[in-house]
Design brief:
Helix content: 40-55%
Structural class: alpha+beta
Strand content: 15-25%
Oligomer: single chain
Bound molecules: adenosine-5'-diphosphate
Order of helices and strands: HHHEEHEEEHHHEHEEHEEHHEE
Number of helices: 11
Radius of gyration: 53 Å
Distance between the termini: 41 Å
Length: 503
């Protein structure tokens, strides 16, 4: 990526807002854990209670009506007994005055009583109706009960009359099997209504108070759950905005503690990655600057003295070429490293014959070994040994090892490559009798940009990336790499890879 492209990609990174309300997401006002808890609890607890209040009201109403109907029937039966002889047209006139009897009843029992004889004439009831035909509009069902001879009951709707809403009972009066009249008893339902609405009202108030308690408790619980989350969100915001020193509180419920510690681990890792990146950039630029500086100095000298001293010119130009080769090697190693450090298994993974890998690498490196006057020997019984991996990557890894062996071995030296099959694994060894590696450096040589001695790499041109690449490749196929070395005696790298089809 060119610098300009890199800059514009940086510009396009999303800007993360810090500060401000934690939940600054459109439409999130109600869609929060807190409100969901409240709504859930209200629905689960208060809805059934409301239904219970409704059912209780309906049951109580029904119960009242049944009890009152029974009492109206009993009263009507008493009056009917008294009235039957009087209403019977076949008996001689009776001295009892029904209207007085009815009036007395009404006065004593707050029951409204109306009495008609067999022809529908009012014999007892409101004084203005006495002796007149009954108006069916005011006493519904009475004439029907007279006709059918069947009792019935119902409720007066107050809208038709001046009366209050009342329950009535019509009882036909019979004598010797004949219907001789009808008595109606009625009671106001106003008191029942009032007491029922008082009861239901009280229950509703209780439910509402309970709902308020539920909301309060849920809010309290909700806050204790969500405020640690909100603190984590603010922290993550600061982290996302680039504050890699941000650390999270690991307090609260188990989940929050786990989240906090995971975020802390992530923040630590981000910090490490960031410092690695800085280190990497400074290493790379240092490795670019050094050869560029010497190319510049060499070219200056050639410009100044090249014409008068052709031998110097030739020597310096050769060194310039060597430096540019070093630069181009560095560039390709950087590309290689960024590919192998991607983190996944590398290339197309399939069974690969180690012998084939070794012979490809040997063919490629042989001319360089010859130039350096170094002998290459292959020690192997020639049987195919299959490992799992990508052939080109494995060749790359082996070439890096062979390349090092050539660079760190004096002319006349010798490099041995051996392939051994063991149960479950293949062992590839590259040994040289070169300068060796000091014991103190052995554990670092696989690190990126690690060189044993600066002076060495100036001569040999390495940037300290080759072995880092080898290790990444080998490990990505489940293998490992080891090194043994003695100063001035030689070095042996051992690569162990799992064999194909065996674990
Ligand atoms: P470089 O490109 O500098 O060789 P490497 O990662 O390949 O980087 O190697 C890291 C260091 O290990 C080198 O600087 C070198 O000093 C040392 N090294 C690697 N291979 C050998 C070897 N065969 N003999 C001696 N030293 C070696």
């Amino acid at each position: 990526m060119s610098l300009a492209k890199y800059e514009s990609a940086r510009e396009q990174l999303p800007v993360v807002p810090i500060g401000g309300p934690v939940l600054a997401v459109p439409g999130s006002r109600w869609n929060t854990i807190r409100w969901r808890l409240i709504l859930g609890n209200l629905l689960a607890i208060c809805l059934p209670l409301l239904a219970l209040v409704g059912v209780t009201g309906a049951l109580l109403w029904h119960f009242y009506l049944t009890v009152m109907t029974d009492s109206l029937r009993a009263r009507a039966a008493i009056i009917a007994d008294l009235a039957a002889p009087v209403l019977d047209p076949s008996t001689p006139d009776n001295p009892i005055f029904m209207d007085r009897l009815v009036a007395q009843w009404e006065a004593n029992s707050s029951t409204l009583v109306t009495l008609v004889d067999g022809s529908g004439l009012v014999e007892g009831g409101p004084p203005s109706w006495m002796g007149k035909k009954l108006d069916p509009a005011y006493r519904p069902g009475m004439l029907k009960a007279l006709q059918d001879g069947m009792p019935d009951s119902g409720i007066w709707e107050p809208r038709h009359f001046n009366y209050e809403e009342s329950l009535y009972y019509n009882l036909p009066v019979s004598r010797d099997g004949r219907v001789v009249g009808v008595v109606q008893t009625a009671l106001s339902l106003a008191k029942v209504r009032t007491s029922l609405s008082e009861i239901v009202g009280l229950l509703l108030v209780a439910v509402l108070m309970y709902a308020a308690l539920v909301v309060g408790l849920t809010l309290w619980f909700g806050i204790s759950i969500t405020s640690p989350i909100e603190r984590l969100i603010s922290g993550v915001r600061r982290l996302a905005a680039g504050d890699l020193g941000e650390r999270f509180n690991e307090q609260g419920t188990a989940e929050i503690r786990v989240l906090g510690s995971t975020l802390n681990a992530m923040a630590t890792r981000l910090g490490q990655l960031e410092s690695l990146r800085r280190q990497y950039v400074s290493d790379v630029s240092h490795d670019l600057r050094t050869p560029l500086g010497s190319i510049r100095a060499l070219a200056d000298t050639v410009l100044e003295h090249g014409d008068e001293d052709p031998e110097l010119r030739h020597r310096y130009l050769t060194r310039i070429i060597a430096q540019t080769e070093r630069l181009s090697r560095l560039a390709s190693q950087l590309v290689e490293l960024s590919v192998v450090e991607g983190g996944q298994v590398l290339g197309s993974v399939s069974p690969v014959d180690v012998e084939a890998v070794v012979s490809v690498a040997l063919q490629e490196i042989a001319p360089r070994a010859m130039d350096a006057h170094i002998e290459l020997r292959l020690l192997s019984n020639g049987e195919p040994v299959l490992v799992i991996g990508d052939r080109d990557r494995l060749v790359r890894a082996l070439l890096n090892l062979l390349d090092n062996a050539i660079r760190y071995t004096r002319p006349g030296g010798q490099i041995d490559i051996s392939v051994e099959a063991e149960p479950g694994k293949a062992r590839i060894q590259v040994s040289d009798n070169g300068c060796g590696i000091p014991a103190a450096d052995l554990e670092h040589i696989f690190d990126r940009f690690y060189r044993v001695e600066k002076s060495r790499s100036v001569q040999t041109g390495g940037a300290g990336l080759g072995l880092a690449i080898v290790r990444r490749i080998v490990e990505s196929y489940g293998g490992r790499i080891e090194v043994e070395s003695r100063l001035q005696e030689g070095t042996r790298f051992t690569v162990v890879l799992p064999r194909a089809g065996e674990n």
